[in-house]
Amino acid sequence: xxxxxxxxTSRIPSASRALRRTCSALAAATALALAVTACxxxxxxxxxxxxxxxxxxxxxxxxxxxxxxxxxxFLPKQVNNPYFTVAGKxxxxxxxxxxxxxxxTGPSSATDTAGQVGYVNTLTQQQVDAxxxxxxxxxALCTALQQAMRGGVKVVTFDSDTRPGCRxxxxxxxxxxxxxxxxxxxxxxxxxxKGEIAVLSAAQTATNQNTWIGFMKKELKKDKYRxxxxxxxxxxxxxxxxxxxxxQGLLQEHPKLAGxxxxxxxxxxxxxxxxxxxxxxxxxxxxxxxxxxxxxRYIKNGTVEACELWDPARLGALAAHASVALASGRITGAKGxxxxxxxxxxxxxxxxxxxxxxxxxxxxxxxxxxxxx
Length: 373
What we know:
By secondary structure, the protein is α/β, with parallel strands linked by helices. It is about 40% helix and about 15% strand. The chain folds into two domains: about 60-175 and about 315-355, Rossmann fold; about 175-310, 3-Layer(aba) Sandwich (Rossmann fold), CATH 3.40.50. It has helices spanning about 15-30, 30-40, 80-95, 115-125, 140-150, 175-190, 205-220, 240-255, 265-275, 290-300, 310-330; strands spanning about 70-75, 100-105, 130-135, 155-160, 170, 195-200, 230-235, 255-260, 285-290, 305-310, 340, 345-350, 355, 360-365. A six-stranded parallel β-sheet has the order 2-1-3-4-5-13, sandwiched between helices. It has a four-stranded parallel β-sheet with strand order 7-6-8-9. A two-stranded antiparallel ribbon has the order 10-14. The radius of gyration is 21 Å and the shape is elongated. Residues about 1-55 have low confidence and may be disordered.
């Protein structure tokens, strides 16, 4: 497990932060009733239920001034992952434009769930105003995130969600159903709607991956896919070498494989790298979620016909806007509330506190040079 950074003791808490620290300590040491009594109705409590994104009873003030000087922390699944680097840059730019301070921390491995919990606890101790988290596991972070919320920290998840009762809002890349179903359709067209296919996923516990794969399986039940068979799901753990080896293994174990879907930017790039240097190039189709900069060479050399993705920089920016809006009281996470995200537009919070970024973009030989991220 990577070392967890020590709290930033150079920051001198204000009176409101001191009160929040007191409330957090009370919540940890005594019954929830005492915590609610000490802190009034302004903090979250563990009575939040899944799907109830605003169970604290807080009321949104959509015209409240945006607070300045906040500290917004980003906690991706994995630091130094190219995808999260782009998302973080988008978040950092937005946070600074909103007059607040951005920081990023997190594990170096996409499967270090215990390490990610440790970072949540450290950020809570540092009294950040909001944290934007991409969860490695849907349930493992819940206790730590709820403790943060009881201490007054606003919690946004982005890219990969935790349970709804453990955060205020979730910034979804697009509709999970649309992402799962469109990847199947992309591959099916390339293999003429027949043959064996496999999925190369990230970590076995990744919330977003499993949700998309679930919708892939539902899509495959449609009659037009009756001649397509999903024969395997492999896990590359968002590690390039592991994903490369898993691709090789899939092709060895399933010699009749017609195509692979990899709903992870690390996985699809590694799979494309393997296919490009093998006898399977042009014979086994590959699609999934990839950045245009990663996939450009493979699309241009014919290894991949098409893939899709959203703009991760916009995803990070929207997570930043949601974080500041929550900390300013403009939104609470309740269904129907409006989030004004500046140049990104206005978004409506949906069921279970979900905000959809928009529809994915398909990249192919005709369009890929229009995109650079």
